Structure formats: C-alpha cells, structure tokens
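Hi there, hope your week has been kind to you so far. It would help a lot if you went through both lines with me. No rush at all, and the record is pasted right below:

***
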Amino acid sequence: MMKIPAKVLVVDDEKDFVEMFSLRLEASGEKVFTAFDGRAGLAVLAEQEDIDVVVLDIKMPGMDGIETLKEIKKHHPLVEVVLLTGHGTIETAVQGMKLGAFDYLLKPADFAEIDEKIQGARRRKDEQEERIRKAEQRAMLRRGGNI
C-alpha cells in the first residue's frame, strides 16, 4: 500500500533541530515546511493549503508555542498540533491539551515516537474531515428533499 505523505509544519527556534528533523521526516516520505518562530509558522499555515500536522515547540522567543497553538486552533481548527519542548512542565502539558493539542512530547524525543504521534494526528484530522464531508452530504440531501 502506497503511503500518502502528510504535510507537516515544524515550528521551532532551534534551527539545527528543525533542519535535522525535517530531513528525517522527508526521508520517511512526508512533505515538510519549516518556520523558526510562531508568527512565521502562522504565515506558512496561511500560505499553504492543507497542512495536516504542526510540530510546535513551546518555548520560543516572541510568540511562544501556547500563543501560537491558540492562533492555529482559531484560524485552522482541523490542523492537529503536536507540542514538543525541552522545558516541559505538567502545567504546560495540561494547558496545551485543553487548547486542543493532539499530544505533547519532551525533547529529546525519539524520532519513531514523534513520527508515531504525527501519524496519529494525521489520522485524527482525516477522520474529522470525513465526518464533516458526511454531515455536509446529509445536509445537502435534506435540502433536496431526499431524506
């Protein structure tokens, strides 16, 4: 079975991490976009169609990951977000999950673990989009009098 690449946006102020992680994701077949701060990440989301998953660092100068997550969910509610940080606390994990993050990982995270979270987030986005399509179809049928 052929794998359909996920469109992944990596947002982190650590440029070396972003570059190495992006190379690994591309090698595993994903389509990768990058940004080095929250505002740049939001700009990429506005420009690119159908980003599936954002891997988002929490501790960044300027707009931090929690602020960025809020904006992502406000303007792109179906995009899934995996929070990633080297400065994790239970409070930020709980706050991120309450704001709609798919999951939360601590750096240094194993690539396989991050990839597994990305795949799970992609599946959840696909399932949500499918439910929306079915609801829209039912609504169209009702308007047409076929139900």
About this structure: The first strand starts at residue 7 and ends at 11. Residues 21 and 27 are 10 Å apart (CA to CA).
